[in-house]
Amino acid sequence: MSVLTSKKVLVPLATAAIAGALAVGSGADFSSTSGNTASTVTAGTLTQSNSKANASILNLSNMKPGDSVYGQVTITNTGSLGSIFSVTESATSGFTAGTLTEKIEDVTNSTSPVTVYSGNFGGAGTKALGSWAAGEARTYRVTVTLLSSATNTEQGKTASTAFAWNGTQTSPTVTNFDTSAVTPAP
Question: To pair with 139 at 20 to 30 A between CA atoms, which of 49, 100, 102, 114?
Answer without folding.
Answer: 100
